[in-house]
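Appendix B. Extra example for self-study. Work through it before the problem class; the solution is given directly after the inputs so you can check yourself.
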Amino acid sequence: MAKRTSPAKSPPKPAASAPAPDAERTLHLSLLRSMLLQRRFEERCAEAYAIGRIGGFCHLYIGQEAVSTGTLSHLRPDDYMITTYRDHGQALARGLTPRSVMAELFGRVDGCAGGKGGSMHMFDKATGFLGGHGIVGGHLPIATGVGFAIKYRGGDQVICCFFGEAAVNNGAFHESLNMAALWKLPVIFIIENNRYGMGTSVERASAINDIYQRAGSYDMHRGVVDGQDVLAVRAAIDEAVTRARTEQSPTLLEMRTYRFMGHSMSDAVSGTYRSKAELDEYLKRDPIALLRAHMEERGTLTAQVMQELDTELKAIVQDAWDFAEASPEPPLEALMEHVYVDTTSDTISTAGGWS
Amino acid sequence: MAIITYRDALNQALREEMQRDARVFLMGEEVGVYQGAYKVSKGLLQEFGEMRVVDTPITELGFAGVGVGAAMVGLRPIIEFMTWNFALLALDQVVNAAAKLLYMSGGQFNIPMVFRGPNGAALQLGAQHSQAWESWLAHIPGLKVVAPGTPYDAKGLLKAAIRDDNPVCVLEGEMLYNNKGEVPDGEYIVPLGVADLKRKGEHATIVTWGKQVLVAMAAADQMAKDGITIDVVDLRSIRPLDERAIIDSVKKTNRCIVLEEGWYFAGVGAQITDLVQRECFDDLDSPVLRVTQADAPMPYAKGLEKAAKADLPKTIAAVRRALYLD
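Solution. Structure tokens for the complete assembly:
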């Protein structure tokens, strides 16, 4: 029997236990806050890149914030997540401080990876943020391994693994889905289908366009989600997380979204592989504007509250910038640190561990 | 002291470390029900169950990455490649993930795992199954690489590798699994990065590791009949490299031959030659010579394969050349 999660399309179905009005307002405000923080943060990243504060490759997440916020707002602190190189927004949504993310982007010692990772390689052990990974598809087997470890230890955590739609054409995707389904591992594979792998559209790269259907090859639960609707994302993740915790079963969710910026900072926003008209059409479905409209319709958000929130978040981002700028560059001694650890299982950990 | 095979020595190491630490598990193709393609994991499925001795699909990239992920969150995986030739499919996980995550994360995520399996040529297996990968792996900062040549070293190095908190590549030898040697009854470890002077001599040094240790020992035996004695420095670990052991020996014998199974170009021997010319420049009485596989893919035909390999006659010829005997 084919397994299909019920597609959670906009408008979302009410959750099984619909939150009380106050609780709903609190939840929606927190989602709005999370998405708007990412947006304001990355707008400043673009500015910082332009003046050379941020170097290397820099891939902005603007337009896709509902996917990170909708997913990560649903996880427990002891759950895990892993993602691609387009990782700033997810780092913030997972609870890394704007200061530590900005300092990492500036290549400073107070960054979440001590300045050694950069834009593409955010890490934070404390929040189970297992990294931004730079090779397309390369982190999917790692996510599968985290799922294996959860099962090995008999835990009920989950791991959410984000990747772009271009990764589904890569062997690592298929190997990972097969093992996760074969061994029943609590992994939630999240395709952020922003329609373009760099400049190649999904239609030009994949033999099927409904790419979530690829999970059918592995008899895996799957669904397609409006990735611009943060509430739809939450509803789909709720179902997948429950399945992972209770049945230790994996799920593949295709979140249909769009990046409002170019692939990286060197890529024009439109004009080569996508038209201005197409971009304009998608800009009408800005995830932040959609939630804002939804809240205003329900009378849970006023223009004044929105303005105050925006002002507060801009100040937080400015503080992150100031902090990053004041943070020292890593000392030269750091160059050769962390190539190896000089410990063994005898020196840092107790033998045994689980019964 | 028991006399056991290299295979059984590895099996003992796996069993003892799995008994000692519940976080250690073995994963790979045919490691469980089949008892190991080379029977190295014989009996482990029965003793530890299928959560800790995990048969995988033929999916090297996938299960290597599963090991990395499990290691990131606190387990201690042993990933078996049926041979290192197949590990090429998994190199993204070995190189881009296992070796780099500690560094990229600013020290937050160390990867305590072992990649192991047979390395190098056996007999007439052709070009794709007859390759020695140590120079590729040792090139990568973040990886440790060991290549035991004897049952004693196989057990001791594998145990050390499993306990190490870094990713360690253990290069075994398909032609070594049946070889027997002395292995102590009690617990012991061979530390990573410590070479072993397998034979003491005066006239020349052969630096080698893994399967080629046997070739070097045979060369030393044969040449001793002519009164030529050789220091055989078995590196055991290629990275970290025991530079001191090489330097001390070459300063004593004043001649150095590096014997390796793999190809000549950019081989490990080139690295050792660099070390010796820097540290022993005034001590050398002849150029450092290298004995390697011919710089071609391994042929199938018996005669061609023999001609390609770094074997005993070539090793003896190199020592004689270093001594200006020919």
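Self-check: The longest helix of chain A spans residues 21-50. If your reasoning did not lead you there, revisit section 3.
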